[in-house]
Amino acid sequence: GGSLLLLFSSSSLFSLWMKPFHLYPREISGGGFIGEILSRSLVRYLNLPGSTILLIAVFILGFILATGVSFIGLIHRIAQAIPALAEKVSTLEIIRRERSERARRLDKRKKEKERVEREEPPQVVTPPLVEKPKMAKKQEEAPKQEAFEFVKPKKVFELPPLSLLDAEVEKRQKIDRDSLIMNAKILEKKLLDYGVEGKVVEVRPGPVITVYEFEPAPGVKVSRIVSLADDLALALSAVTIRIVAPIPGKSVVGIEVPNTHRETVYLKEIIDSEAFRNSKSKLTFAVGKDISGEPFVIDLARLPHLLIAGSTGSGKSVSINSMICSILFKATPEEVRFLMIDPKMLELSDYDGIPHLLLPVVTNPKKAASALKWLVDEMERRYTVLAEKAVRNIEHYHQKLEKEEKERGRVYKRKGDSLEGEEEPSPEEMERLPYIVVVIDELADLMMISSREVEESITRLAQMARAVGIHLILATQRPSVDVLTGIIKANFPARISFQVTSKVDSRTILDTIGAEHLLGSGDMLFLPPGSSKLVRIHGAYVSSAEIKRIVEFLKKQGSPSYESSILLEEKREKGGQGEEEEEYDEKYDEAVAFVAETGQASISLIQRRFRIGYNRAARIIEKMEEEGIVGPSDGIKPREVLIKKIEP
After folding, report:
1. pTM of the complete model
2. Domains defined along the chain, listed by start
């Protein structure tokens, strides 16, 4: 009975809701003849909705009778099937929407690429051609001292001529506009592939790198562009790419791409530039060229100290040589003196014998610590001199000196100099205070041998020496926190970083990443004092042959006048014999009494008892041995105490 009910109800429903199909030679209803007859009869009395409800009820009843399933069980199964059916419908709807969105994005990207291909290429900014200035006459290059009738003429110190430097030997590469425009298109398409919309609005080619100024579309995060540096380098077949996000003063992101053919920046170009020649400071550095090819110079007096870091082969030593040579082209020994410390005994030894040196190039770390201590004493002495003359800094002191020279009509001599035929100066005469530039090529070696003494001296000089004309240049190839301590970094706001091996080293020297993406061979990032914006510079190149020619020229001008007080300080620290003030230790008498009372003597025992350092305790024990209080050291055996406790 259930099967018949299923048959009649289903055929009637098909006749009601299915279109008839043609079976030649006549049209057949969807439910067959039986279904057509039953459906027409029901519609006549119950209309279409009523007939449908009745047939569905009969169908359910027939299904229950035919299968033996209860009505409640059927309802339960239907209720269980509804969520699964709804989930499938929802999944199908999500897939349909994703396909529609993907098709929309592909269509938009296709239209954007067509727009990029149709629009005008970005503007290529060609660096202006600067005419090389004519060489100044030899008489104008060498400053001459004003002569007075009652002073015997003194030989005038002559500055090195530019002819000692090599001329530019490489021809400048012509700008390939088509290649630059093609790279700009590649950048736009590659960024678009990663969902970053925008366009390259300007291209600035330079001697070493080319800057593509990319203007992102509204809503694009700058961090997304920065994270794509490696992918862009792969697309352009570049060694590395640095992204400046954003360029200061502009609403664009700078993408710095290395040139295929890199130009060499020569020191002669920078020294012969208008920026260097117009600088009045005697401490002007010829650093190199910026990314647009303009000469870049720095006044050390305004920094006032400089911290340099870079791995081996990054161009750090060459840049230090170019800085030293640029000062030698600008200043006489009466204006600037150098104290060079080179523990590596490689780079600065070429300058031995030039008249600008306070000392021969120092290579011994112990002597370097002594020289820095002398420099601290010299700083304090200069402060006393400035206080006596009621001036605030060395610039005001020099101005007052020039004013008094004009008023009194004579030349005041520098301390330690002597002029033949000149009468003895009166006590009121002002001495000349030259600038002192301290160059330390490898700070890590000094910190390894005597870190405490070196760090204390450097810290005091960095904090106070600016006003008295003493400036520091520290260089290291290992910018780790044990070398560049927090105290040293805090007093060196101006820093230069060449290529380093990791982001950690870049953060140590510059407090930000970026130096690990540099190209080497003089490519550097300069952090100006009081600013967090880095300046990329391509360092000037000076060869060893050029340095030798400059040094030989300066040696012919005269021999160096070394500061005897530094040499005496070194001898005193090295020898230390017969000087009561240096040998006497305030803890010595207490240590003798302690040894006599306990009958034991050792360096570690003196250290623990009086809470002093190892070196100081060792000196106390050595002095006891010299005076016969304790016996000599005999390997692992304790020293013999030769005196007894004195009873009161």
Report:
1. 0.65
2. 2-69 (no CATH), 120-125+174-258 (3.30.980.40), 291-412+431-565 (3.40.50.300), 584-648 (1.10.10.10)
